[in-house]
Amino acid sequence: MTGRHVVIVGAGPAGLSAAASALAAGAAVTLLDAAERPGGQYHRMLPEEYGAARPGRLHHGWSAFDRLRRRVLGHPRCTWRAETSVWALERPEPGQPGPPLVHTLTGPADGTDRPRRTLAPDALVLATGAHDCVLPFPGWELPGVYAAGAAQALAKGERLVIGDDVLLAGSGPFLLPVAAALLEAGAGVRAVLEANPPATVARGWARRPWELAEQPGKAAELAEYTALLARHRVPYRMGRTVIEARGKGRVEEAVTARLRPDWSVVPGSERTVPVDALCVSHGFSPQLELPLAAGCALLRSPAGEFVAVDGDQLTSCPGVYAAGEITGIAGAPAARTEGALAGWLAAGGDPAAPALRRVRRNRDRGRAFAARLAAAHPIGPAWPGWLRPETVICRCEETDYGTLCRAAAEEAGAAPRVTRLATRAGLGPCQARICGPTVAELTARPGGDRPARPADGLPVAAPHRRPIAQPIRLGELASTPEAEPTRTSEAEPTRTSEAEPASTPEGPDTDPKESTA
C-alpha cells in the first residue's frame, strides 16, 4: 500500500476509472459525486425503484461499467460519498506543499442539515465533466425547448419523453445517442439536424484517416445509430439548424434554415416545422469552477478552454490531476483512459509501470479524437446573426441581446464585472454556469476583444471563476465540519472478496461498441 489518500471529484467514466487505478496502486480513495449513483450522464439508467434489471439496448458498455462499479464501491479502501457537492477548494498557504483542502456538503441539494466535511487529501483528481452548450436563438426560452442532455437524462433515467413530435438540432455526434434514447423511450423524432455542412464534417473526420482504424468501435456504433434512424424513418440533414422557436405559452413550431460554413443563414432557406418539443445541443462546456478554484491553468483551443495537463494528467497545481471532459471533449472511452492514468499516478503508482505504455497510447488516441471532433463539428462564428435585439440571452434574469450590446459598447460598461452588474446577465440562480460563456463572447465582440483590466488584487473575470463553487446556506457555512472517517466504505452492500489490489494500473474495460459522446 502507498499510504496515500486520494480524493476524486466526479464518479463518471473518468472518475470511476481513476478510483479503480488509485485502489490498484494501494491508496485509500474517497470518491465524491453529486448524483445518487456513479456513472455520470453516460451510464445513467432507471432508478432501482423502477425494478429495471438492465438498462436499454443501446446503453453501450454497461456490463464493463457494472463490473467496475461493483469492484470500486465494494473495495475496503474506498469511501463512496453520494449526493455530495464540493462547494469550495481551499488552496494551501504560499510555499506550503500539497493540493487544496476539499470542502463538501452531503445530502440533496434542496435538503436541510447537510453534513459538512473537510478533506485533506495527498492528491486530488478532478473529473467534473461537462454540460450542454446551447447557443441562444429567438424563442429558446419557451417551455418545450430542451438541452439535449436534459432530454437524454429524462429518457434514460425516468423513461419520460419530452414530446411526441420532437426535432433535434445542433452540432456533434451527441445528437445521435440522444435521438436513440428518445426513440427507445417511445418519442417520435421528426428529424436530426446537423448545423455544419457536409464538407466541413467530412474534412474534419477525414483528416489523418489512418487514425480511424485504431477505433473500430466508433464506426460500429455509428452504423448502429444510422440503422436505428433508418428503421424509424428519421432523416438526418446536414447544413441546417433551428434559428427560431415559436409558440403561445410553449413551443409549437420551429423555424429551420440552411447555413453556410460560418453558420450564417442562407437567405430564403427558412422552413417552418410543427413540433411539440425541441431538443438542442451545440457541443459541451467543461465544468471549470473547481479547476479554477484550485488555481489550475487553462489551455485555450479552437474548441474552447480546458484544463491544461501534462503527460501524466497533472495540472499546474501540485498534487492536482484532471481527467475526462474538462481536459477536452473526446467521449467516455477517452475519459476512462485519462482517469486510469491520473488515478494511478495520483496514488503514487510506479510511473514506469509497463502497463502505462498502453494507457498512455490510448490516451493520446483519445486526444487525437478530440481534435478530430472539434474540427468536424465547430461552432461557426456567424451564429449571432440569428439573434434579434429582444432575444433573451440570460434566461434566469431575462436579459436580452440588445441590452448586452448597449452595455458592451460603452467604455465604462465593457468590463465583464460591470456588464454583469449593469445588465444582471449571469446573476440569476445558475450564476452564469449556462449563459456565462455566451455572454462573455457576445460582450467581447462590440469592444473588439478589449482585454479585461481587473482591479488590483482581483483575478481576471471569467464565467467559471467563483470562490463558492456550489450554493451553501449560511447555517451550513457556520456549522462545524464533521470528522471524516478514513479507510472505510459506505458503498453499496455488495463487496468484492479481493483483499489486495493488482500491482498495475487499471486500464478501462473496453467494449467494441463504446460511445463517441
What does this structure look like?
Helix content is 28%, strand content 19%. The protein is built from 13 helices and 22 strands. The strands form 7 sheets. It has a 5-stranded parallel beta sheet with strand order 3-2-1-7-20. A 5-stranded parallel beta sheet has the order 9-16-10-11-12. A hairpin with a 2-residue loop joins strand 18 and strand 19. The two termini are 36 Å apart.
Please name the defining characteristics of this protein.
517 residues; single chain; five-stranded parallel beta sheet; 22 strands; alpha/beta; globular; 28% helix
Question: What's a concise summary of this model?
Answer:
The protein has 517 residues and is of the alpha/beta class.
Average pLDDT metric: 85
Helix content: 25-40%
Number of DSSP-assigned strands: 22
Helix/strand/pairing category: alpha/beta
Shape: globular
Number of helices: 13
Distance, first to last CA: 36 Å
Q: Characterize the biggest β-sheet.
A: 5 strands, parallel
- Rg on CA atoms, Å: 23 Å
Widest sheet, order of strands: 3-2-1-7-20
Q: Give the strand content.
A: 15-25%
Unreliable runs, pLDDT <50, ≥5 residues? 486-502, 508-517
Which helices and strands, and how do they pair?
Elements: E1 5-9, H1 13-24, E2 28-32, H2 62-73, E3 78-81, E4 84-90, E5 101-106, E6 116-119, E7 123-126, E8 130-132, E9 145-147, H3 148-158, E10 166-170, H4 175-185, E11 189-194, H5 198-206, H6 216-231, E12 236-238, E13 240-246, E14 253-258, E15 271-274, E16 277-281, E17 284-286, H7 289-294, E18 298-301, E19 304-307, E20 320-322, H8 332-346, H9 355-376, E21 392-394, E22 399-400, H10 401-409, H11 416-423, H12 436-444, H13 474-478
Parallel strand pairs: 1-2, 1-7, 2-3, 7-20, 9-16, 10-11, 10-16, 11-12
Antiparallel strand pairs: 4-5, 5-6, 8-17, 13-14, 14-15, 18-19, 21-22
Helix pairs in contact: 1-2, 1-8, 3-4, 4-6, 5-9, 8-9, 10-12
